[in-house]
Amino acid sequence: MRAVLRCLLIGAVLLMVGATSACFVTPIEQAGESVSPTAHLRTGPQTATVPRRDVVPVAQNPTQTLPVTVDSAKFGKVTVTDTDRIIAVDINGTLGNIVFALGLGPHVVGRDTSTAFPSAVGLPVVTDRGHSLNAESVLALDPTVLLVDENTVPTAAVDQIRASGVTVVAFPGTRSLDSNDDLIRSVAATLGVPREGDALVTRTDREVAAARQFVPDPSGDPTIAFVYIRGRNLILLAGPGSGADDLIATLGGRDAGAAAELTGAFTAVSAEAMITADPNVIMVMSQGADTVGGLEGVLTLPGIAETDAGRNRRIVQMDETKILAFGPDVGEVIGSLARAIYT
Predict the structure, then answer these.
(1) What range defines the domain where residue 221 resides?
(2) What's the confidence (pLDDT) of residue 259?
(3) Are 52 and 329 in contact (CB under 8 A)?
(4) d(C-alpha 118, C-alpha 53), whole Å
(5) Per-residue pLDDT tens over the stretch 6-44
(6) What is the DSSP string of 282-326?
(7) Tell me, what's the pLDDT at 1?
(8) What's the total number of domains in the chain?
């Protein structure tokens, strides 16, 4: 009798274990299923704003070690002996942001149009419309060092400034997360503050890591397009090497430009090409959206209304001085965009 009861008890336990195991089979399989590209997306136009309007330096009046000899992207070895009067110029405003973040803002005497945060906005502008460098404006400020990137135009203006005796250092024009730390450290080394450069890299990387927490995992890999707009007749889709592709990947998305097999950083696209790309989300610069009547105007542009983004009004705008600048603010940019894109 005891043997029979023992067998019945063991059988009951086995049945319970089997039933319990069966209960967990379905959720495990569901956890491995793919997520819809639109599962986590917000609906409706959004404006992404960074919480920090002005640059926060990692140091105040840092001690500089000069002279230094550094590698310039276009001019070989360059020796920097004096940083009392700095001008930093590039289309994204990245170099100026880095200089201020290193604590050397008081040394800056001129700026480009994209370097427009509060502590810099009162400085004289040395670039014309289209971000072209004006040699006369630069020389009138008597700089001791000019920082540019390899894509700064016109090259004749850069050459004229160099010929006048101003020390010019050129940096790579690529803007991406992979190159961001190197760029910060290179600018810091050029200005004789390598320790502050390391501190700024540490802070920036920490903010990027924190921003990634706002991207769902899995994200669903939504297709995201970055569209450059300047009026209804100039509409460009960003592609490989634009910086937008790297930003979109960090945001958990697929770059619409890559999906459309674009080969250039920015390419004019037809309405049909935009419809074929069919992004789930479209990112634009606020100033570009303003040229067509704001976010509502963007939704009326050729091809956009017929995309998934257009039908669901998923247009996200951000200030042009922030969205593709990378540099010290990239963590805040990623976090702000992620909060605007995802629920």
Answers:
(1) 46-53+216-341
(2) 87
(3) yes
(4) 7
(5) 443 334 433 333 433 333 333 333 344 589 999 999 999
(6) EEEEHHHHHTTTHHHHHTTSTTTTTSHHHHTT-EEEE-TTTTTT-
(7) 42
(8) 2
